[in-house]
Give the backbone structure.
Amino acid sequence: MLIGHIREIVRYPVKSFHGESVNKTNVMNYGLYGDRSHAYLDKSRPGKYLTITQFPEMVRYKAEFRGEEDLNKFPPVRITAPDGKQVPWDDGQLIKEIEEHSFAEITPVQYRPIHVPEGAIEEENILVVTDASLKKMKELWGKEKLDFQRFRPNLVLSLVKDEPFMEDQWFEKTMKIGNVELKVKRHCERCMIITVDPESGERDPSLHKKVISERNNHFGVYAAVLKTGEIAAGDKVYLFE
């Protein structure tokens, strides 16, 4: 059954930094190519990463790959800081700046194109949201604007049928996009990250409260990769039992 098409593809080269929208990408066993492949370990919390939860301003640093996707090594990752300065993701001054503002001591860590551990993503491989649900949540929240980047999805789907939260009915079904196959697994349970404006870094707890009261703290669904391949914005999305 045709359910819609891909409106946006978003990956996050650096965990908790602002993501980049791409026209096409490879879907790997772990999710979108390079998604959360670079991160900063928080030395005060062994095995843990510095994230928006500890330092909301991270969302204002924009990360992007500068080059073609390569399965042997990642292209360079460029960061655009809130002041417009552009530097490599492991630049010494950038790390010092983040440490000073976050009051944390961090170590950059980079994984491989063929394997990004689930620990860096923390949940399933891919997070999916729909345009209908975003529109309805904006209406429920009652604000003029609701940036989809607050929810940090990998795929934003434009649905054939304008039915909010129809994704609640997709669990254990297979989503097919070209040659790629995903298994829709479960709800995404939201945390304080959605309270952070992805442009200003300012927090507004009212959105999280609304998601809790109206949606039992669920927004978006997680999917696991069954079959890898390439996807592109505009690709049709099908759902099968």
In short: The chain has a mean pLDDT of 95. The chain is about 15% helix and 35% strand.
